[in-house]
């Protein structure tokens, strides 16, 4: 899949998911735990898990996550609930969701996020990750 580079710059990673409207997006259960090593799937494979709004069962895959595709990280923590910042309401989120160490928003592609001073960790669906054997990685 070819991506244009405006004026020879960085790839612009805003593409739409390929799951047809009205079709349920796929899930994956890895039951990842903090400290485990994972690899983020290539962007093309992640797009295959997203609908036209770039959501997988309601969770948005942001362009800021694209630079992490294909890279290896340790699981920082599991996520089962988030806070709605507008209302303060605690919202449960279903499915296998994790945060990854050293994978936070860097505001590379999004306007109005100037250097992302909060350095927010995006939430990753397990469907966007694959477990990496630590023994194989150390060889």
Tell me what you see in this structure.
With 139 residues, the protein is mainly beta. The chain has one domain. Helix content is 7%, strand content 22%. The protein has 2 helices and 9 strands. The strands form 3 sheets. A 5-stranded antiparallel beta sheet has the order 8-7-4-1-9, with no helix packed on it. A hairpin with a 2-residue loop joins β2 and β3. The radius of gyration is 15 Å and the shape is globular. The N and C termini lie far apart (31 Å).
Short description:
This protein has 139 residues and is mainly beta. Helix content is 7%, strand content 22%. It has helices at 43-47, 134-138, and strands spanning 37-40, 55-56, 59-60, 72-78, 81-83, 90-92, 97-100, 124-125, 129-131.
What is the strand tally? 9
Order of helices and strands: EHEEEEEEEEH
The tally of helices reads: 2
Q: Return the average pLDDT rounded to an integer.
A: 82
Counting helices, strands and paired strands, the structural category is mainly beta
The radius of gyration computed from the alpha-carbon positions, rounded to a whole number of angstroms, is 15 Å
Give the DSSP E fraction (strand runs of 2 or more residues).
Answer: 15-25%
Oligomeric state of shown chains: single chain
Q: Looking at the structure, what is the overall shape? A: globular
Low-confidence stretches: 1-5
Q: How many domains make up the 3D coordinates?
A: 1
- Sequence of strands across the biggest β-sheet: 8-7-4-1-9
């Amino acid at each position: 899949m070819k991506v244009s580079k405006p004026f020879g710059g960085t790839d612009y990673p805003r593409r739409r998911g390929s799951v047809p409207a009205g079709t349920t997006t796929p899930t994956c259960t890895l039951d990842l735990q903090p400290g485990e090593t994972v690899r983020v799937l290539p962007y093309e494979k992640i797009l295959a898990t997203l609908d036209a709004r770039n959501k997988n069962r309601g969770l948005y895959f942001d362009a800021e996550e694209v630079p992490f595709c294909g890279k290896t990280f340790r699981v920082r923590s599991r996520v089962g609930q988030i806070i709605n910042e507008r209302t303060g309401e605690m919202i449960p989120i279903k499915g296998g969701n994790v945060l990854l160490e050293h994978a936070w928003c860097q505001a590379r592609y999004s306007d109005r996020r100037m250097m992302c001073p909060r350095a927010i960790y995006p939430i990753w669906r397990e469907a966007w990750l694959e477990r990496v054997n630590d023994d194989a990685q150390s060889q």
